[in-house]
């Protein structure tokens, strides 16, 4: 069989082109630093690399989300610290105002400072984050959560639920707390307190509340005590039950607790004894009650008793408020610690992704340099063979 000159030319050119392609491929790999330049180089490895790249991008999004959540929680923690300082100062002022050595003018001065704390607390409740959203507005974070009504009373108009952010594959974290959680709640462990209200007409005063039997079946219930003059005898009843004679002073047993009472109540006077969560939980209402008795001079014995009762109740409500803020700060701190842990896990995961991606697509420069030399020799050999072959013709001898 004879091989034509055209066939030999085609074979030589094809060999040079093949060697040239392989040589250029190695050069492109060295220039890019990647073993896989085109999907056709290794389809299976490239598919795995795409999947890993997507997982890496998701991990990066979670990392960015954690940054935003951490900033919000850090700002909240700072605000809660200021709120706690307001409560602490207000409690100190209440202790001062309770002293019998203070005059009405002195208590007016205390009321002036307390009003400043009240205004400061409203401002803290309407704090905005770095994006201009109200920190304690919950879902409704585009409008101020605390507003004053026509009577000057502060009310919460935000949402009770808060936004959540996906901070890891299986973890959604609440971004802060609502105004209800901070300013209108108490911890579940808040104990009993008494509240005589602001409408009593007698000189009834309550002192300590003693826990006698925390295992009593009625322990934890709320108790409303009413007073009435029945046939010349002052009596009281609890939660609408049977009337009992009232003596000054007296101790009333209420399902595992005892409350000490003194003074002369008037018909229609009431006293509520309940746990913090069953009593007033609105800290703004607490400020308003304190200001109401401090702004007005107490002239009669009934007014003085009302002031004593109110200040005692207010001090306990401030204590409950501080406990709630401290509990919330602890929760914020726990979330920040969790974010740190998730950052560590995320960094390790990203490092593993990068290592796996490198194993799939990154170039081994030592092997590539060796292949580069081999391909260069092969290309040169193909070129030399073509040069030698093209001179093999009988026409040179004619």
TrEMBL record:
Determine if Amino-acid biosynthesis is one of this entry's keywords: no
**What InterPro entries does UniProt report for this protein, alphabetically?**
Flagell_FlgL, Flagellin, Flagellin_N
Q: Which GO terms describe its cellular component?
A: bacterial-type flagellum hook; extracellular region
State any single GO MF term.
structural molecule activity
Record GO biological process: bacterial-type flagellum-dependent cell motility
Known Gene3D superfamilies for this protein? f41 fragment of flagellin, N-terminal domain (1.20.1330.10)
Q: Which Pfam families match?
A: Flagellin_N
The residue ranges of the Flagellin N-terminal domain are: 3-140
Task: Enumerate the UniProt keywords alphabetically.
Answer: Bacterial flagellum, Cell projection, Cilium, Flagellum, Secreted
Location of this chain's protein in the cell: Bacterial flagellum; Secreted
- Is Secreted among the key words of this record? yes
Q: Name the protein family.
A: Belongs to the bacterial flagellin family.
Protein name in UniProt = Flagellar hook-associated protein 3
């Amino acid at each position: 069989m004879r091989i034509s000159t055209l066939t030999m030319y085609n074979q030589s050119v094809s060999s040079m082109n093949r060697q040239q392609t392989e040589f250029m491929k190695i050069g492109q790999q060295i220039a890019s630093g990647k073993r896989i330049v085109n999907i056709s180089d290794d389809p299976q490895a490239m598919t795995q690399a795409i999947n890993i790249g997507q997982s890496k991008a998701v991990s990066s999004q979670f990392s960015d989300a954690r940054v935003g959540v951490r900033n919000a929680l850090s700002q909240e923690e700072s605000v809660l610290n200021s709120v706690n300082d307001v409560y602490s100062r207000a409690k100190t002022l209440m202790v001062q105002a309770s002293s019998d050595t203070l005059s009405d003018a002195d208590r007016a001065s205390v009321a002036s400072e307390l009003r400043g704390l009240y205004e400061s607390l409203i401002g803290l409740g309407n704090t905005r984050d770095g994006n201009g959203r109200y920190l304690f507005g919950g879902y409704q974070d585009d409008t101020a959560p605390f507003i004053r009504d026509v009577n000057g009373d502060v009310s919460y108009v935000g949402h009770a639920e808060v936004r959540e952010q996906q901070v890891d594959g299986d973890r959604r974290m609440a971004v802060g707390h609502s105004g209800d959680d901070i300013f209108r709640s108490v911890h579940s462990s808040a104990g009993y307190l008494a509240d005589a209200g602001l409408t009593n007409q007698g000189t009834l005063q309550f002192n300590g509340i003693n826990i006698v039997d925390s295992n009593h079946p009625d322990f934890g219930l709320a108790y409303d005590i009413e007073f009435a003059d029945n046939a010349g005898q002052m009596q009281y009843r609890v939660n609408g039950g049977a009337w009992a004679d009232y003596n000054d002073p007296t101790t009333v047993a209420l399902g595992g607790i005892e409350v000490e009472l003194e003074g002369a109540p008037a018909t229609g006077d009431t006293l509520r004894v309940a746990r913090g969560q069953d009593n007033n939980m609105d800290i703004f209402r607490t400020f308003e009650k304190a200001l109401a008795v401090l702004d007005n001079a107490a002239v009669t014995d009934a007014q003085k008793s009302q002031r004593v009762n109110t200040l005692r109740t207010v001090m306990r409500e401030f204590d409950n408020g501080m406990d709630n803020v401290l509990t919330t700060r602890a929760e914020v701190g726990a979330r920040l610690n969790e974010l740190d842990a998730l950052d560590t896990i995320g960094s390790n995961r990203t490092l593993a992704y990068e290592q796996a991606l490198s194993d799939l697509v990154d170039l081994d420069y030592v092997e590539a340099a060796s292949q580069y030399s081999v391909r260069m020799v092969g290309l040169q050999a193909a070129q030399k063979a073509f040069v030698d072959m093209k001179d093999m013709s009988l026409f040179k001898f004619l």
